[in-house]
Amino acid sequence: MLQKLRHLLFICSLSLIASASFASAETPEQIIRAASKDVLEIIQKNEKDAAKTRDLVDQRLSPLADYQRMTSLAVGRYWKSATPAQQEALSKEFRTMMVRTYLSALTLYKNAQINIKGTRAGNDDEEQTIRTEVTLPNQKPIPLDFSFEKVGSSWKVYDITVEGISFINNHRNQFGAVIRKDGIDGLIKNMAEKNNNSRPNK
């Protein structure tokens, strides 16, 4: 149950920052602050139309996350051995996976609140981690960290950590097991099947 909650919190947290505008002047902290209110409206307005919500979330997430870096980190050492076509397919399915999981979690977070606790510098000026806590009714606050990198003039998320557990590291273990058994094409097929089986009807 705790594992499921962590995974759903990751998706919820992406949605919290997905609806912010991404002007180059905005800092990661400003992005999170601006969107924590907006996302509640998104959930309330679209929760009964899964297909529409899927498309809306995909549009909102597109300018937010560095999908290629996220996927390469999740695939780990196998990324370099993948062909450009395989890398593109992996990134596509990874992106769809995040949106798919978000849709399954929508109704659980109507009353969630996110409180910013501070900013931690990264390895250089191009990276920052925003420390937050997510508050849910009748539950203890849950630590949630957003790792941002600066890409051009915009800040983008490349990892999220819930209670000290990295979303990227968690999936690296899962993906590695599939690749060792079925190869990179096997992972692509595995992700595509799960995405297609969970796709909402138009």
UniProtKB/TrEMBL annotation:
The record's listing under Gene3D superfamilies reads: Tgt2/MlaC
Task: Return the InterPro entries for the record.
Answer: MlaC/ttg2D (IPR008869), Tgt2/MlaC_sf (IPR042245)
Supply the alphabetized keyword list: Signal
Key word Signal present = yes
Signal peptide segment: 1-25
Q: Keyword Nucleotide-binding on this protein?
A: no
Which PANTHER family does its entry note?
A: INTERMEMBRANE PHOSPHOLIPID TRANSPORT SYSTEM BINDING PROTEIN MLAC
Protein name as it appears in the record? ABC transporter substrate-binding protein
Q: Which organism is it from?
A: Deefgea chitinilytica
